[in-house]
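Researcher: Sequence of Histidine kinase/HSP90-like ATPase domain-containing protein follows. Predict its structure.
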Amino acid sequence: MDADFPALVSCTGTRERELKSTPCEKEGEPPDVHRHLSGKGGPHVMIITSAEADIGDARRATSEFVGRAGPETAVDDVVLVVSELVTNAVKHTIGWWRLRVSVHRRRLVVDVEDASWAPPVPRKPDEGAVGGRGWQIVQQLADSIEVLPNSGGKTVRAVWSCGRPGSSA
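Model: Prediction complete. Tokens:
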């Protein structure tokens, strides 16, 4: 495992490997579970949470994971989408977030779950504004985007099909 990601995931191996599992202590928070699932023909999965990771950790872990487990992908596009979605979860919600990146049968899925039921709201930023473009960036780079309600808030899902993210393969 890379020393830069001591609490995150290992992206090698061919069997389920639980790196950390701690029961929830606060109501409404997801379990602190990090797993890499890899099997012959099976899914490759990375999960990290806000309990021990920040936005930079999410970007670095995603870059490493997609670079190793992903089908032919534009890693930088996926990392930018992760950065925008996790940043939105940090800035616009209260509580925890969980990032799940999975690859199965040449389909790459990024799920960012958070404690808010409010969907992302597109904004029209001023030309000189520093922020306000994240949701538009996500929509441009992913093949499809969904906002899915769940029992603790919502999941924002970005999906790339076969080939490079952002291409219509």
